[in-house]
Specification:
This protein has 15 helices and ten strands. By secondary structure, the protein is an alpha/beta fold. It has two domains: 149 residues, Rossmann fold, CATH 3.40.50; 193 residues, Dehydroquinate synthase-like, alpha domain. The strands form three sheets. Strands 1-8-5-4-2-3 form a six-stranded parallel beta sheet, with helices on both faces. Helix 3 packs across helix 4, helix 10 crosses helix 14 and helix 14 packs across helix 15. It is globular and about 65 Å long.
Length: 362
């Protein structure tokens, strides 16, 4: 008999606090996890005012020694700056206070330092608030890197719902795109015998379905919307921890999004540059098309995104039709080792035009 030697490590948040004015609980949370009293708050200028200053005051009153590090874009240089600062200050615990970029920088620094970190989102723009992966920007778009799951998550819905609603709707679109990601994963399991976790897949789909089922309730200026969105994003992040990779929440729709980033900014409109589409917005549009290719209920995804207020067309994204098609044709270049509905060769230009037109994206 062959000896069983398979092993797997799964790291999850020890404690998750989500709700109204939970920022005040940061001192008690740090006490409970007991990882030292030298704390570094990683933040940007905006999130310092939103939550960072309050957290610093609360922790200082609770006898913590608190340092602060301002960051901006999620780049290798920013991560290295945080690592150097933390080492010089003998930091024992990091707090990522901000949006996806700030939290990604924090989790990568924590991973390199082998120190725990607490995720304190000030907006809900994607499921990175709970996942063990991080995105870094470089000259050709962005890359996904292995990081570490947060030791704890503290999400104050009173802060999050006041962030621009576009960020929340983008985060919801990112989670809804789990539908096509899981379909891709199942396909790779059937055709390529790729390792598959039914538990992780169920978690990812449950998070997406929660938002689809409650799409009518997700709207601007309501704290309840932030509550629903953050819960779904945390479940989605945990699904990736269960899988040990991004498969439950990243498939062909994410390849499409990353290729759009690689191809450059949005189109010009009446002499002015449109706002660069957000990651989740692009993934949502990608999920519509990829779910169609799978023969799934793409219209349900499209309708949910419309209800939430997320883009469903190239015009709403602010991206030209030609660029949408080029991204579809070249999406497979992003992660050629990851098998998806796009196959190993990707789509032809003719098929890409047909797909985008049939689903109403262009």
């Amino acid at each position: 008999m062959t000896r069983f030697i398979k092993s797997k490590t799964m790291v999850f948040p020890r404690e998750i606090i989500v709700g109204h004015k939970t920022t005040a609980q940061i001192g008690e949370l740090c006490d409970r996890i007991g990882r030292g009293h030298n704390v570094l708050i990683v933040e940007d200028k905006r999130t310092k005012k939103l939550s960072g200053d309050d957290i610093r005051k609360t922790l200082t009153k609770s006898n913590y020694t608190v340092k602060e590090k301002l960051v901006s874009a999620p780049t290798v240089n920013e991560v290295n700056d945080v690592i150097k600062f933390a080492k010089k200050s003998d930091i024992e615990l990091l707090l990522g206070v901000g949006g996806g970029s700030v939290i990604d920088i924090t989790k990568l620094a924590a991973f390199d330092l082998n120190k725990p970190f607490i995720s304190v989102p000030t907006c809900a723009s994607h499921d990175g608030i709970a996942s063990p992966r991080a995105a870094l920007k470089h000259r050709k778009g962005s890359i996904s890197k292995t990081a570490v799951s947060p030791l704890a998550i503290l999400a104050d819905t009173c802060v999050i719902y006041k962030a621009p609603y576009r960020m929340l709707s983008s985060g919801c679109a990112d989670v809804i795109s789990n539908i096509s990601a899981v379909m891709d994963w199942e396909l790779a399991h059937r055709l390529k015998n790729e390792e598959f976790s039914s538990h992780a897949a169920v978690l990812a789909k449950t998070a997406a379905e929660l938002l689809i089922d409650h799409a009518d309730e997700i709207r601007p200026d309501t704290e309840e919307s932030a509550w629903l969105a953050v819960k779904a994003m945390i479940v989605s992040g945990v699904a990736m921890s269960v899988a040990g990779n991004t498969r439950p929440a990243s498939g062909s729709e994410h390849m499409f999004s990353h290729m759009l980033d690689h191809l450059g900014p949005g189109i010009m409109l009446k002499g002015r540059q449109r706002k660069q589409p957000l990651h989740g917005e692009q993934c949502g549009v990608g999920a519509i098309m990829m779910t169609y290719l799978h023969g799934g209920n793409w219209e349900e995804i499209q309708n949910a995104l419309k209800k939430i207020g997320a883009p469903t067309t190239s015009e709403e994204l602010g991206i030209s039709k030609k660029k949408i098609v080029e991204a579809l044709v070249r999406a497979q270049e992003i992660r050629p080792e990851r098998y998806t509905i796009l196959g190993e060769q990707g789509l032809t230009e003719e098929a890409a035009w047909k797909l985008a037109r049939t689903t109403g994206v262009i």
